[in-house]
Amino acid sequence: QVQLTESGGGLVQAGASLRLSCAASGRTFTDYSRDVMGWYRQPPGQERQFVAAISGSGTTIRYAPSVKARFTISRDNGRNSVYLQMINLQPEDTAVYFCVKGRRSDSVIITTPDTIETWGEGTQVTVSL
After folding, report:
1. How many other C-beta atoms lie within 10 A of the C-beta of residue 34?
2. 59 vs 78: CA distance, rounded Å
3. How far apart are CA 55 and CA 37, in angstroms?
4. Residue 25 has pLDDT above 90, yes or no
5. The predicted structure's pLDDT at residue 1
6. Can you give the pLDDT at residue 55?
């Protein structure tokens, strides 16, 4: 069974950058290379919301409109890892960020929680003014 472990969160000032990492264990290279992976976030007092998704090959990517110009998702299948580079962070980006695996390998449309098969435990990102 796949397990997802996030790292890289922290407390930063507005305008700063962070890079989140997620390592997937329990998957072979072949299987992981087919998995649709992504990131969600949960701001304080709000529901979990989609951030970004990437296909197994890395050729198809989807972003939430609110982050499209500032966040970049990428993956390294040789390391069973997916990353989220975030620049120009703002206080509204404050949230717990979750690494996720989609239920299906043929769609990067994982914009609702029912499309997610596996969740990581999350990493806190706090952006201060």
Report:
1. 13
2. 16
3. 7
4. yes
5. 84
6. 97
Biggest CA-to-CA distance, the chain: 43
- Measured CA to CA in angstroms, residue 70 lies from 63, 64, 105 at distances of 10, 11, 26
With a cut of 90, say whether residue 126 has pLDDT above it.
Answer: yes
Q: Which helix (H) or strand (E) holds 32?
A: helix 29-32
Q: Residues with Cβ < 8 Å from 7, sequence gap 6 or more? A: 20, 21, 22, 23, 123
Residue with tokens 């969160």: 9
Single out the residue of 71, 72, 65 nearest to residue 127, CA to CA: 71
Q: How far apart are CA 110 and CA 64, in angstroms?
A: 11
Number of CB atoms found within 10 A of residue 102's CB: 22
In angstroms, rounded to a whole number, what is the distance separating the alpha carbons of residues 123 and 16? 17
Q: Is 112 helix (H, G, I), strand (E, B) or coil?
A: coil
Q: Which of 104, 106, 126, 125 is nearest to 116 (CA)?
A: 104
**Cα 22 to Cα 7: distance, rounded to the nearest angstrom:** 6
Question: Measured in whole angstroms, how far is the alpha carbon of residue 121 from the centre of its chain?
Answer: 12
pLDDT at 40: 98
- Average pLDDT of the chain? 96
